[in-house]
Amino acid sequence: MWFGRTIKATAGVCALGALLLVTGCGDDGDERSERPGSGRSHDPSADGSPSSTTPRTSYPSPHTFDLTSAVPLPDEAEGGRQVTLHGTTAYVWSPESLQAVDTSTGAVLARVTPEREAAFKVTDVLRRVPRPPAVSGTGADAEVITLFLVKIPGSGTKPADYGLEVIGVEAATSRPTWRTEIVLPTWSRDRYLTLSAEVVGVENGIAVVRASNDDNEMTYAVDLSTHKTIWRKELAPWAVTGGAVVGPNVVDPYVERHLRAFDIRTGRPLWTGGKSSGAASAREAGPHLVQFTGGWGIGERFVQLLDARTGKVRSTIDGSFADMGCTYDGKAVIVCTGGGPPAYAFALDATTADLVWQLPDKSTDRVAPTVTAVFNGAVYGKVTGTEGAGPVVLDSRTGLDIETSPGIAPVAVNGYVGIAQDSGSDAALAYRTTG
């Protein structure tokens, strides 16, 4: 039921659940499909990279996968969480390297490493798991944007520093074409606080990267044509979409926080949110929307969808859905979902924010899948706890089943390949799309 722009939960849909939803192209959004979703969009029909001489067919929104074609990816893929797809190549990130892997054979085509010593090793436990690399541009102009935390040696009375090495990798050849180094503030030297860094998003020819420890956050905007930092701010960049970088006004998670937004190209302030909250978070929810979640307790939780450029509230979602993720399907709707139990999923029109469909649906006796990816009009997931449960593909516009035997529930997908976690382990397997 709707009250204004507020979604109210139906019976059986109110259970809370957390899901890191992965996006379809390039999200955020990555995603995590052809990653990186919001701010990382990429043409789903882009030419396959030359990772294999065997012709491959690209399906606009694949519904089935060849189970006999499973190809193991390197251990650093971590079940698919650190994979960005471009064409038939999987780019696998680790603290020490970016590997370009042929998804047809598993062969490592290239290994990109920082020029300086990496600050962390593959075996280190990271403070936070970074987003996978981002994709900028399409076709022959596409670049994979990645970064590494590196050590900058001291000299004489000058102490050693830490820095970010940001690298642009030509997607067509998997070769690095440029590098730029950012020296981090002196707080990065604090050996009692663990550093982390990531590419948060790419949009309008700008890469937004972050560096942080437990007490500090810094955002840098790197122009991808000049490879220079064009602005920097003490900001946690929670979301990059709609030409805006959105984050909290303070770093401390134990105080009331509200959102601030800045223009991605100039760094000038765009808006300051009126609603403040503890335990707040934000993420991309579409090409122009930000999902703002807050509240200390279950009864106080809320979710708002905000216009990234203006901060205007486009939709308020009932607090019962607070532990959820929303992502754009690449066409017309925003798919929101959570793990439950039971799992729930619903879709909003990306233009009007009107409810389009919702699961579970008692009237049709349908349950909701646990969603693993959304890509170019398709919703991928798993149905559990019922007879005949398994992977399923839904139409993102209608919510109806379009494939009940896809073979896998990919966590990353494009027209050529789906990446899924191996059953019983954290290994990532690549499967060829078949239709």
Topology:
Elements: E1 2-3, E2 6-7, E3 71-72, E4 83-86, E5 89-93, E6 98-102, E7 108-112, E8 134-136, E9 143-152, E10 161-170, E11 175-183, E12 196-203, E13 206-212, E14 217-223, E15 229-233, E16 239-241, E17 244-248, E18 259-263, E19 269-272, E20 281-284, E21 289-294, E22 302-307, E23 313-317, E24 325-328, E25 333-338, E26 344-349, E27 355-359, E28 370-375, E29 378-382, E30 391-395, E31 401-403, E32 412-413, E33 417-421, E34 428-432
Query: Beta-strand level of the residues, as a percent range?
Result: 35-45%
Sum up the overall morphology in one term.
globular
Give unreliable regions as ranges. Answer: 1-48
Strand order of the largest sheet: 1-2-23-22-21-20
**Secondary structure tally: strands:** 34
Overall pLDDT confidence: 86
State the helix count: 0
Largest sheet: 6 strands, mixed
| Rg, Å, rounded | 21 Å
**Helical proportion?**
under 10%
State the separation between the terminal residues, measured CA to CA. 37 Å
Helix vs. strand class? mainly beta
